[in-house]
Amino acid sequence: FPMSANVVDISIPVDYSEAAEVFKAMFLDVARELVPVRTGYLKSTIAAEIGEASIGEVTAEASAEYAQYVEFGTYRQMAQPYFIPAIEAALEEWGLAAQKAYEEALEEAQAAYEAE
User: Fold this and answer.
1) Measured between alpha carbons, how far is residue 101 from residues 8, 15, 47, 107 in Å?
2) Do the Cβ atoms of 82 and 71 come closer than 8 Å?
3) Beta bridge partners of 46
């Protein structure tokens, strides 16, 4: 914590990579559990990738050309949501994991400050 005059510069790096892993795993588990299966193709296209894990960036997709019709329905077919509920469940778990990462980073910063 460099200090000069009346200015305190506090920078606390937080590693959200574990939270990104939690999000990815939860999304995949829930989406693959909820997706309706006729041939298995839609289920096989559900994927998630971790981008910049340190900030918690995760990309999730279902790339079957009809994925949105299953999720939102059509005038001939009722919606069978699987993607949005999976995102919601994953965000909830990500929030818990991200809070834990923040608290750990804060504790480390406080310990470093007290050691100075």
Assistant:
1) 23, 7, 25, 10
2) yes
3) 62
pTM: 0.83
DSSP letter for each residue of 39-77: SSHHHHTEEEEESSGGGT-EEEEE-STTHHHHHH--SSS
Q: Whole-angstrom Cα distance, residue 76 to residue 102?
A: 47
**Hunting for tokens 């041939």 — which residue is that?**
39
Helices (H) and strands (E) in the chain, counts: 4, 4
pLDDT 10s digits, 42-59: 999 999 999 876 677 889
- Name every residue whose Cβ is closer than 8 Å to that of residue 116 and which is 6 or more positions away in sequence: 1
The widest CA-to-CA distance across the chain, in whole angstroms, is: 69
DSSP 5: T
Question: pLDDT (tens digit, 9 = 90+) per residue, 10-38?
Answer: 778 888 889 999 999 999 999 999 999 99
